[in-house]
Amino acid sequence: MLWTDVNEIAIELYENHPDTDPTYILFTDLRDMVVDLDDFQDDPKKSNEKILETIQMLWIEERD
Question: Which domains are present in the chain?
Fold first, then answer.
């Protein structure tokens, strides 16, 4: 997965962290969670606030 695979990342986060409420997660923690995903292969430094916000919003939608 790459940073651009926001939908896939959100699904993986939902599946790997079912007890985590993404509404209140810090972007630094979210970035670390994404980088720690088994299939994630992109440069951790390529993340930005817009990408992380998109992932967070999709994760929230996935929970609901």
Answer: 6-63 (1.10.10.600)
